[in-house]
Known about the structure:
- 14% of the residues lie in helices and 37% in strands.
- The chain is built from three helices and 16 strands.
- Strands 4-5-11-10-9-8 form a six-stranded mixed beta sheet, with no helix packed on it. A five-stranded antiparallel beta sheet has the order 14-13-12-15-16, covered by helices on one side. It has a three-stranded antiparallel beta sheet with strand order 3-6-7, with no helix packed on it.
Amino acid sequence: MKKAKIIIFFTLVISISLFIGSFLGYNLTKDNKVNIIVPEKSNPTIITVEATECNTKNYIELTDYNIYTYCLDHLMIFTNNNLIELKNYVPDKPEFITELISNLELETELNDGGTKIYKDKNDYTNAGLTLIKCNTLDSNKDIYIGPKDMEYQESFCKNIDNSLKTFTKTYEVLNVALSNSDEFIYLTLRQFQFEEIETIKVKKSLNYDITVGKNYEFTFEYTTEDIEDNIKSIFNNATLTSIVETDKTGLDQVQDPIN
């Protein structure tokens, strides 16, 4: 009798789980993996799965542009009765992006050269979709795909210089001297465990409150590979972008390698 009750209990649990899963649009398989129920529509159909944390991901890299996802964990296509990630489909069939856009409706066009925002208003996707096709004055052609309520973000459609690199060095300020120009000051610097001392000219706007005897993290951007790991070469060949006071001392200080 007790065994029969246990069997009935687990039968009810499984039945309820399957009912809830079907209601939410998912199926539980024998190995407890989750499968998405695809709508009964003509191939191909786009299936989206929203992310728990909203961010932008470089999803597909093509020759002339990149495709990014926004607030999506998965972007899939149901074609020939198979469900596969779009990033595994498009590189072999790049023309599909044109087909995808043709199934969406143009909602608005931005005054930046011609960036267009499309929406799925005909249930082409399982949960709605927004597609932004960049066409900026500086020739950005990237595409952003997100959920139906995605809006244009300031970070979209920007050309990224992949050759631009950054690093941070920590220096102690031994002396501060005024420049003849109000825009600049002279700093005498030394790196921990180095004998080298150099005086360099920096923009005062990077930090208006630099104090002698304190340590500061200097962050640089650079593209050239011809930088030696010394103060003079760094300041001559890289662009200083920030100066921030730090309480880290000795070996705990940030001393990023170059190249």
